[in-house]
């Protein structure tokens, strides 16, 4: 089955630690996105990438970094500079062509601070 | 600029009653509009979309929405809800010239038995 796989499902970060969230898709989609979800705030865009080796900052990129070395992979690193990382993180992708605006989501990673 | 407003953060409704979840958008150009549903601790999945054509859009699970350009609205409706419809619903907009979708803050639908 095609889809988006996020891992791990739960992640704990210690003070001063960087952690990386994985996002893999086998949908052959060009564009990939990372969102942060906090209660009552909806989804906020962290970073997005429309092609391999290129990515842009979203609305809340500070304290986060990404890479896009392969079409199917878009990992997100939450750095120690992100002072309030506790949230639900969602990865999404979109295809080219007629359905290019429909976002397909992974099941999410819940990050907590120890 | 594009933005979307979901006026109700929570909507309680009895089982088998009708429901309407409200969504208004702001955009100066043509728009694509979406409704997504999120069940607890899961990602979002597409309920329905308006890209062009008929203003009444039918989606999965018996939901439908109507695009109203004059009122800049895209309200989601279901004539009879089921317990399994309990979830959070997100309205989203993509305007011409934008590369990114903007999501609303979500409406939690609580179906009461």
Blueprint (SSEs and pairs):
The complex is a heterodimer of chains A (114) and B (113).
Chain A: E1 4-7, E2 10-13, E3 19-25, E4 31-38, E5 42-51, E6 54-57, E7 64-66, E8 76-78, E9 87-94, E10 104-105, E11 109-113
Chain B: E1 3-5, E2 10-14, E3 19-21, E4 24-26, E5 31-38, E6 44-50, E7 56-58, E8 64-68, E9 73-78, E10 87-95, E11 102-103, E12 107-112
Parallel strand pairs in B: 2-12
Antiparallel strand pairs in B: 1-4, 3-9, 5-6, 5-10, 7-8, 8-9, 10-11, 10-12
- The quaternary structure here is heterodimer
Strand percentage of chain A: over 45%
- H/E series of chain B, N to C? EEEEEEEEEEEE
CA-to-CA gap between the ends of chain A?
35 Å
Low-confidence segments of chain A: none
Task: Offer a quick outline of the entry.
The complex is a heterodimer of chains A (114) and B (113). Chain A is mostly beta strands and 114 residues long.
Structure description:
The complex is a heterodimer of chains A (114) and B (113). Chain A has no helices and 11 strands. Chain A has strands spanning 4-7, 10-13, 19-25, 31-38, 42-51, 54-57, 64-66, 76-78, 87-94, 104-105, 109-113. In chain A, strands 2, 4, 5, 6, 9, 10 and 11 form a 7-stranded mixed sheet that branches. The N and C termini of chain A lie far apart (35 Å). Chain B has 113 residues and is mainly beta. Helix content of chain B is 0%, strand content 53%. Chain B is built from no helices and 12 strands. Chain B is globular. The mean pLDDT of chain B is 92. Chains A and B meet through strand 5 and strand 10 of A and strand 5, strand 6 and strand 10 of B.
């Amino acid at each position: 089955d095609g889809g988006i796989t996020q891992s791990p499902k739960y992640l704990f970060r210690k003070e001063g630690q960087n952690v990386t969230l994985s996002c893999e898709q086998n949908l052959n989609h060009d564009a990939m996105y990372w969102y942060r979800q906090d209660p009552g705030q909806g989804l906020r865009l962290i970073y997005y990438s429309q092609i391999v080796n290129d990515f842009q900052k979203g609305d809340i990129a500070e304290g986060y970094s990404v890479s896009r070395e392969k079409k199917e992979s878009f990992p997100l690193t939450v750095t120690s500079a992100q002072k309030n990382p506790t949230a639900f993180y969602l990865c999404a992708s979109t295809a080219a062509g007629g359905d290019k605006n429909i976002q397909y989501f992974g099941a999410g990673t819940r990050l907590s601070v120890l | 600029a594009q933005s979307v407003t979901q006026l109700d953060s929570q909507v309680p409704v009895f089982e088998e009653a009708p429901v309407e979840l409200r969504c208004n958008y702001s955009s100066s150009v043509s728009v694509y509009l979406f409704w997504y549903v999120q069940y607890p601790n899961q990602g979002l999945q597409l309920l329905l979309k308006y890209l062009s054509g008929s203003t009444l859009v039918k989606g999965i699970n018996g939901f439908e929405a109507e695009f109203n350009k004059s009122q800049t609205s895209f309200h989601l409706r279901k004539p009879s809800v089921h317990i399994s419809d309990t979830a959070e619903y997100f309205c989203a907009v993509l305007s011409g010239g934008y590369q990114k979708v903007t999501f609303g803050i979500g409406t939690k639908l609580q179906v009461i038995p």
